[in-house]
Amino acid sequence: MAKKDDDKSSLVQLRAFLNNSGLQAGARLPAERTLANLIGVSRPMLRTALLVLEKEGRIWRHVGKGTFVGNKPVEASVDITQIASATSPLGLIQARLVLEPEFAAFAATNASPAHIEELHATTARSRSVKSWREYEATDNDFHRLIVEASQNGLLLGLMDIMQAVSRTVTWSRVRADETGPPVDHHSFSEHEAIVDAIARRDAQGAREAMEHHLHNVGRRLLRPVSASR
What we know:
By secondary structure, this protein is mainly alpha-helical. The protein folds into two domains: 2-69, Winged helix-like DNA-binding domain superfamily/Winged helix DNA-binding domain (Arc Repressor Mutant, subunit A); 80-227, GntR ligand-binding domain-like (Four Helix Bundle (Hemerythrin (Met), subunit A), Up-down Bundle), CATH 1.20.120. 67% of the residues lie in helices and 3% in strands. It is built from ten helices and two strands. The chain has a two-stranded antiparallel ribbon. Helix 5 packs parallel to helix 9 (186-199), helix 5 (89-110) runs antiparallel to helix 10 and helix 6 runs antiparallel to helix 7. The longest helix is centred in the middle third of the chain and has 22 residues, at 89-110. The N and C termini lie far apart (61 Å). The relative contact order is 0.13.
């Protein structure tokens, strides 16, 4: 009986968190350990409550990415491989320059303190990676978090498609070595400038910082692989 009462209590607390958090459809919930601490329950109790809400369609889970608010989206009838085969590195950068500066500006308006904290944590984590593959995964997390911070589910869906194409277009380029980025890699300071502008609620500053960053990414992406450092 006590377990049922605990499960009911954790469900009530999780519902209250979702109702009061302001998170919109497509937004990612905090990691389980963080969320359990926030609502004051154990992780097993939290998982039981998450399962109930998942069955109700209030949340959905993506293995390796996390738990998200809203109904699980219908799988898009988009052939990522086909799009990627028709997309050059230049075309990818052009698309990113059209979309991502506006994503950053929107994030400056809508980001919650939790979003900003997570963005800071991700920029810090990127400095400790040991390989280019690990850096690229962290970089993807950073750019996706910016769109999460905009709290717009449709924009997040567009970003997921663009990142899936990006992984196919850019990860096919074999690195000359397996070491990670140098300590003075341009993206470190550029990512921090983007987050600082978002934290200041400076939409134009976030837009310009993202444009500057993507222009630098483009210059390096379009170089021969041997010169891409």
